[in-house]
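Milestone M4 deliverable, item 7.
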Amino acid sequence: MTGLRIGVVGGSIAGCAMAIAGTRAGAEVTVHERSSGELQDRGFGIVIPPPLHQELVAGGYLGADMPTAPVATRIWLTRAPGRHSARELARQSSPVTPCNWGLLWRALRSNIGESAYHRGLPVGSVGRTHSGHALIRTADGEQEYDIVVGADGHRSVTRELIAPEVRPAPAGYLVWRGTIPLSALRDHPKVLELLKTAWITLGFAGGHGVFYLIPGADPGSRLLAYAIYAPPPVSASVSASVSASKVPVSAAYVRNIADEHFPAEWADVVARGEHTSQALHPVADFVVPRAAEPPFLLAGDAASVTRPHTASGAVKALQDALCLERTLRESPSAAAALRRYAHERTAEGARLVGLGRRLGRALVENTPDWPAMGPADVDAWSRATLNGARSYLYGGVHQR
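Output delivered:
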C-alpha cells in the first residue's frame, strides 16, 4: 500500500510498535506524543513470552542487544504457619523474558525508521473528513491521514470517538509497583539465589506479590521489580478513574501488608529496601466492542485494559502491532486491513479481560489457603482458575 498515510496518537510502547508496523508495511507514519520529555524513565518491570521476543527481534522491532533477564521457572511461596520463614508450595515451568519498560520503549523508539515523531503537542481530538479520511487535531491545526491509530492509553481521545460509552470497571483492589537495587538483597542471599533462575509468586490471604529481576539502566545491572496486590484499607474507596497520585493509601500501608503477610526476609526487602521507583494504581479493566472502525483503530491500552495478573499490557500492544503489519501487507485496502484487525484483536482483548477477572478472583478476591497447599494443589488450582484458557504464565507443575 504505497502512499498510505498513518497518524499515530501516542508515542509510548504501543505507539512506537505501531509506527514500526506501519513503516514496515510501506506506509508514511507520523507519531504524535503529548509529553515533551523522553519516556524511558517511566514504567517498571514487564515480562513477555520468549517466542514473542524472538519474533520481535526477527521482525526488526527490537534489537537482539536489548537487555533482558530471562528465567524459565515460576516458584510459588507463602509464609509458613506460625513462623516468619518462607515455605515453597510448587515450581512451574513458566519461561518469561523480563524487560525494563524504559529500555523496551527506547529499543522500539530507535527502530521506527523514517517515521516522524512529534513530542510536546497533545492531540486534542480526532475526526473524519467529508471524504472519509481521518483527521488529527492539535494546537498547530489539522492533519489528514488514511488511518489514525489510537495508541494513547486508557484515556484515549480516539476511543472517545468510536466507543464513547466505554468506561473502566474498577476491580476494587490496588497494585503497588516498585523497583529496588540488588544492593537491598545483600543480606538476603537465599532470596537473590531464587531470583537468579525464577520469578516468584508470594501468596497470602487477600492478595499476593510477584517478584522478578529486570535489567537496570546501567549496562549489566539488575533491579528487583515487584507488584503487590491487595484491597485498600477499609476507610478508603477506590474508583477506576482515580489517578495513582490521588489514591488515598500511603506506602506505609504496603509496608504493613509485607510485615503482616510476607516471610521475614521478603518483608524486609519490600519494607526497607531503597526504591528507585514506586507507584500505586487502582486495578480496573475494560474492552471496546470493536478494536477498529475504518479509518480508525485502537491499540494497546486504548483498546482494552486487562487486570495486570495476565502480564499482557505491553504484550498485547506488541501483538497488536504485528497484527497490523500483517493485515496491511495481506489486505487489498486499508479498510479491509482494519476490518481484519478488528476481528482478531477485539476477540483477543475480550479474552484477556475475562482471564484477568478470573485470575483476580482467584489471586485477590477469593484466595485459597496457601499454607495448606502443595505441588498437586497448586497444579489443580491453576487448571481450575484458567478453566481452559491459555496463559504463558502457567505451565506444568514440577512434581516431587
